[in-house]
Design a protein that fits this description.
Radius of gyration: 22 Å
Shape: globular
Strand content: 25-35%
Number of helices: 7
Order of helices and strands: EHEEHEHEEHEEEEHEEEEEEHEEEH
Largest sheet: 10 strands, mixed
């Protein structure tokens, strides 16, 4: 076992939330270390729907605060990461058989624009019938209206790496692969044990941030004394890649079988279709699309683009962490839950759930909690202004 350095903060988990916290730690002038057992963005943060969006569908469950925050964070990322996050046209077709009527969608998009402070990128339009035939072969039988608005698309893996690089430029470090073996409370901090190349190393940390994503409970159990947690469900989200690319943007469709929202979007020369929401109880590292999920997504694509071959050439799945509930995953809240071991002077903070779009806001909330514990340092940057480069 080799000895190591002292850090103000050790972050466990190299997805987007761990990366965001590491950057915020470094920007606040603290010394941080991130430990990731696999590779950076190896879990859900490389298996998302690749969207930096405000969450239009969350308006239906009255999550107005989440939508407002997401739209603000989208604006920030468009400004600081123009090479990584870009606005893309989103098309929402309304058919006779779909559950929402044109007036409902117009009302929702109007509220969406209002929550986005009526910025130019928040505007929407109803496409004239003459433009319907120029939308990648979108089915027109039974079509009543098409609305178009803008939202963001990103390469989620590249975004994680850019945030880590920003943190590194400010003096923090990330190790991957580096398995978090455990942490034991020692005085005003923790002795942290981790494994690199089969060798056990140690360091000291003033505080710990558990950003383990689907592994969050496993990480929690390796900390002594064991900090509090919440009961969670893991929900699998599968995607398929279909041969052939779309040219006109992203389509916000409704699955024929259960009316769930499914995105159909261009992605690296192919068409990405997702996602599903299926309860999962196995090893997070082993999650993969079920045959029924692949068929569900393929059928949805074929319903909206009947003239295109629905040849699935790849598929993959990620996991969401949601507070335990008997409700359907589709209607559950998507707010991030922060759980601290001590609200007055936290030494451990765990990040449950969260969306790709809101990672920076989540990191700032973590830092506000930890400000009660961390030593005073000179601020060296603002995560809302630090540029992120591909």
């Amino acid at each position: 076992m080799s000895g190591g350095d002292d850090f103000d903060v050790v972050v466990i988990g190299g997805g987007i939330h761990g990366a965001g916290v590491l950057q915020a730690v470094a920007a606040a002038g603290h010394r941080g270390l991130l430990l990731e057992e696999r590779a950076l963005a190896a879990g859900t943060s490389s298996r998302s729907s690749k969207l930096v969006h405000g969450g239009l569908r969350y308006l239906e469950t009255f999550q107005l605060g989440l939508v407002r925050e997401s739209l603000a964070e989208r604006a920030t990322l468009l400004r600081v990461a123009p090479d990584l996050v870009r606005l893309v046209p989103f098309h929402v077709p309304i058919y006779r058989a779909t559950s929402r009527r044109p007036w409902q969608l117009r009302a929702g998009l109007s509220l969406y624009a209002l929550l986005g402070n009526l910025a130019p990128e928040a505007r929407f339009e109803k496409l004239p019938r003459g433009a319907w035939g120029d939308l990648d072969g979108l089915a027109t039988e039974g079509l009543e209206a098409i609305f178009r608005y803008q939202d963001g698309q990103t390469d989620d893996t590249a975004l994680v790496r850019a945030v880590i690089a920003s943190a590194a430029s400010l003096g923090s470090s990330a190790l991957a692969p580096a398995r978090f073996a455990g942490a034991t409370r020692a005085g005003e901090g923790f002795e942290v044990r981790y494994v690199v190349d089969a060798a056990v190393r140690t360091c000291r940390a003033g505080v710990l941030v558990n950003a383990g994503g689907p592994w969050i409970e496993e990480v929690r159990r390796r900390i002594e004394p064991e900090p509090p947690g919440i009961q969670v469900d893991l929900v699998g989200g599968s995607h398929v890649e279909i041969e052939g690319a779309l040219a006109r943007g992203i389509y916000y469709t409704e699955a024929p079988s259960d009316r769930r929202a499914v995105f159909v979007m261009p992605w690296k020369g192919r068409t990405l279709v997702g996602t599903t929401e299926t309860p999962y109880t196995g090893d997070p590292a082993a999650v993969k699309p079920l045959p029924s999920e692949i068929e569900y997504l393929r059928d949805t694509f074929a319903r909206y683009f009947p003239g295109r071959e629905a040849k699935v050439v790849a598929s993959w799945a990620g996991l969401r962490v949601l507070p335990r509930s008997a409700a359907s995953p589709f209607v559950r809240r998507r707010d991030t839950t922060l759980v601290a071991d001590d609200e007055r002077r936290p030494r451990v903070v765990a990040i449950y759930g969260g969306k790709l779009t809101g990672y920076r806001a989540t990191a700032e909330k973590v830092m506000r909690l930890l400000a009660r514990t961390l030593p005073a340092r000179n601020v060296v940057g603002d995560t809302a202004e630090l540029p992120l480069r591909a």
